[in-house]
C-alpha cells in the first residue's frame, strides 16, 4: 500500500464526493460542507484549491495506490500568525485505522516546511475525536492543551485540543 499526497485534479471530484458523503466524517469536520456531498461540490472545491495562492494554501489529495481516498490541507494564517498554518484532513471511512493519515500528515508537514517559510503547523481536533488526536501524536505533533467549550458542533458545545508541530522539530 503506497500512500502519497498530490495536487488535486478535477477528475478527482467523484472520489472526493464518495469519501465526504459520510456523516461520520462530517461530524469531525467544521460546518459548512453540504450533505450529501456531490461530485459538483467536489469540482468546486478542487477548482478553488487549484486557483489558490500556492504559498498560502497547501492542498492535496491523499492517495493509496493512486486512488484518491481523502483530502489534506495546511492553510497559512494572517497578521502576526503569517508563518503558521492550520492543518485539516479526512479520509474515507474504509481506510481508517491503517496508518494512512499519519503518513499523509508527515508528508504534508515535510512539504510545507521545505517549500515555505512556515515555522509552525497546528491542528485543533474535537476532543472527542481520539483517532485524529492519535494521528497527530504519531506524526510528531505535541499536545498543547484543551480549548474548553471552543465550538458548537451538531448543537453541542464541545472542547477541542490544540496540537502543533514546529519546523525546528522536523
TrEMBL record:
PROSITE patterns: GNAT. CDD domains: NAT_SF. InterPro entries: Acyl_CoA_acyltransferase (IPR016181), GNAT_dom (IPR000182). Residues 3-165 form the N-acetyltransferase domain. It comes from the Bacteria. This is GNAT family N-acetyltransferase. It comes from Blautia hominis.
Amino acid at each position: 500500500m503506497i500512500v502519497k499526497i498530490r495536487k488535486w485534479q478535477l477528475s478527482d471530484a467523484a472520489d472526493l464526493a464518495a469519501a465526504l458523503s459520510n456523516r461520520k466524517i462530517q461530524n469531525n469536520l467544521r460546518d459548512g460542507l453540504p450533505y450529501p456531498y456531490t461530485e459538483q461540490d467536489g469540482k468546486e472545491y478542487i477548482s478553488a484549491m487549484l486557483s489558490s495562492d500556492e504559498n498560502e494554501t497547501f492542498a492535496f489529495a491523499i492517495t493509496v495506490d493512486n486512488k484518491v481516498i481523502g483530502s489534506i490541507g495546511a492553510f497559512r494564517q494572517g497578521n502576526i500568525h503569517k508563518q503558521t498554518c492550520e492543518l485539516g484532513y479526512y479520509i474515507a471511512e474504509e481506510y481508517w485505522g491503517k496508518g494512512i493519515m499519519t503518513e499523509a500528515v508527515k508528508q504534508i508537514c515535510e512539504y510545507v516546511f521545505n517549500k515555505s517559510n512556515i515555522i509552525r503547523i497546528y491542528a485543533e481536533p474535537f476532543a472527542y475525536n481520539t483517532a485524529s488526536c492519535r494521528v497527530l501524536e504519531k506524526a510528531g505533533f505535541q499536545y498543547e492543551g484543551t480549548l474548553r467549550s471552543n465550538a458548537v458542533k451538531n448543537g453541542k458545545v464541545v472542547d477541542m485540543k490544540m496540537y502543533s508541530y514546529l519546523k525546528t522539530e522536523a
